[in-house]
Design brief:
Elements lengths: L7 H50 L27 E2 L34 E4 L10 E5 L10 H17 L10 E4 L1
Antiparallel strand pairs: 1-2, 2-3, 3-4
């Protein structure tokens, strides 16, 4: 009786098929986790946006001049220094219709970048008679925008409207997603 085993060619074929499957599975996993982090970023900006809207709609401010403005409209000189502010500063805001934590208990942070310079940012309108009446929140999505794609054109259009119509600062470098009112 003769023992039959695998030949070297058969073993190499099996190893290369397993390698191809492992590479495909790794790529699919990394792509799915990247999309899930982007979905979380969009969800976080929606939550912050709802907090902004709740603050705007508050009618119980002790200072009636605060009614109908977004948070931090009177804390910074938005006209001469219209920079994008980290959303983390919302934790420290109080006195303008109460603390921002009354509208959003926890300020979300970017899932991979954490706190710091690349976290979510916000900017307020600076136009005459509309100071603090409009806002934009922005994040860095992992999905790379292809130039001239519909998403890239929509981002450019949103930034142009924000800058030209509302006096807001130009989008920070690298940020590619905007939510606002």
């Amino acid at each position: 009786m003769m023992k039959r085993g695998f030949t070297l060619i058969e073993a190499l074929a099996v190893v290369s098929i397993i390698g191809i499957l492992a590479t495909t599975a790794t790529y699919a996993y990394l792509n799915a986790t990247s999309r899930s982090r982007d979905a979380r970023r969009k969800s976080d900006l929606t939550a912050i946006s709802l907090g902004f809207q709740a603050r705007y709609d508050t009618q119980t401010c002790s200072d009636r001049g605060d009614v109908g403005h977004y948070p931090a409209w009177n804390k910074y000189d938005w006209v001469s220094e219209p920079r994008w502010k980290n959303t983390e500063i919302l934790r420290t805001l109080s006195g303008d219709c109460g603390a921002f934590s009354e509208y959003l208990l926890t300020i979300p942070i970017d899932p991979t970048r954490g706190s710091g310079d690349e976290n979510y940012k916000f900017n307020l309108s600076t136009g005459i008679n509309i100071l603090g009446k409009h806002y934009r929140l922005t994040a860095i999505l992992e999905k790379v925008l292809v130039p001239e794609s519909p998403e890239a054109l929509a981002l450019d259009r949103a930034e142009t409207i924000w800058h030209d119509s509302f006096g807001g600062a130009s989008l920070p470098s690298g940020y590619n997603y905007i939510v606002g009112n």
